[in-house]
Design a protein that fits this description.
Spore Coat Polysaccharide Biosynthesis Protein SpsA, Chain A, 3-stranded parallel sheet, globular
């Protein structure tokens, strides 16, 4: 569990771990990243009350989201590693037992995930299920569990609720690679790394809640230059991780991110950076470049008029 400025939510997250009913031991490792609020005090209070189950990592200085995740993951010692951020929570006391049993019964699978409810905690906020938003998560008619390999993840993108993920520890490199510190989407990066060693098994059971709030990472950094730079870094890494058969997908996304970053740099008056990223956006994907060139040529010919020839 990684946490930062979650004093309003952390208790609910920790309690949802403590309520788990399992026939195996569960240790909760909390990476508390020097929050300016009472988050650390809350985490340490749980450690004091449940010393056999809760262990809190307390760095002396703020690490940042991904380095904190890397340090917390490195401190986990179990055969399986479940993931839960401090502002989400589990809703089913049998969650861990079901997922561990599923992974033990399907030894070729590297990880397991399940359906989740997403909600906005502001008054009147929307509530939806991942299985409603992503059609490929609907249960198959034969009742079998769906499997998703690394190629599926590359083509479909992010669709696994982070609080639903349980990894076979051996499916992840320990420690996580240095490039991980620069990615934006830590959960998606973990999914890609894990599924390089086997597919992800999906359980169509609602067992966690994904909180959307104004203080969340995905909300606070949306459409920012920071996000786009990290997205570009992320996709450059993914191109090295993934088979060449899906490089076109990565190139397409890179093109969009470069063009978006160019526009943002333009808003800030940084014309040199704007031109550089616009060029990168046009040239990173050969197919997209030809499309842009054809459209630009058409505009120039149209502007010249019918007598230009």
């Amino acid at each position: 569990m990684i946490t930062y400025r979650h004093e309003a939510f952390l208790g609910q997250a920790v309690e949802s771990v403590l309520m788990q009913q399992t026939d195996f031991a569960v240790e909760l490792v909390i990476g508390e990243d020097c929050s300016p609020d009472a988050t650390r005090a809350i985490a340490q209070d749980y450690e004091r009350r449940y010393p056999a189950q809760v262990r809190v990592l307390t760095p002396a200085a703020n690490l940042g989201i991904m380095p904190n995740l890397m340090a917390t993951m490195a401190a986990c010692t179990g055969e399986f590693v479940a993931f839960l951020e401090g502002d989400d929570y589990w809703t089913d006391p049998t969650k861990l037992q079901r997922q561990v049993e599923a992974l033990r019964a399907n030894t070729d699978c590297a990880m397991c995930f399940h359906d989740a409810e997403a909600f906005n905690d502001s008054p009147g906020g929307d509530v939806w299920k991942f299985s409603e938003k992503f059609a490929h998560l609907s249960p198959p008619p034969d009742g079998a569990f769906r499997r998703f390999d690394q190629l599926d993840l590359a083509r479909l993108g992010w669709f696994m609720p982070s609080a639903s993920m349980v990894f076979r520890a051996a499916s992840l490199p320990r420690p996580l690679p240095a490039w991980f510190a620069g990615v934006f989407s830590g959960d998606y990066s973990l999914q890609l790394l894990s599924t390089s060693n086997g597919p992800a098994l999906y359980l169509p059971r609602l067992m966690s809640a994904y909180r959307l709030h104004t203080g969340g990472v995905m909300q606070a950094t949306a459409q920012s230059v920071y996000q786009m730079r990290r997205r570009i870094h992320e996709n450059l890494v993914y191109k090295k991780l993934l088979p060449r058969s899906v490089h076109a997908n990565a190139n397409y996304l890179l093109s969009l991110f470069y063009l978006d970053l160019s526009a943002e740099e333009g808003k800030l008056g940084r014309r040199l950076q704007q031109a550089y990223y616009y060029y990168k956006g046009l040239t990173v994907d050969p197919v997209n470049f030809k499309r842009h060139l054809k459209r630009l040529t058409g505009k120039l010919v149209g502007a010249a008029g019918p007598d230009a020839a």
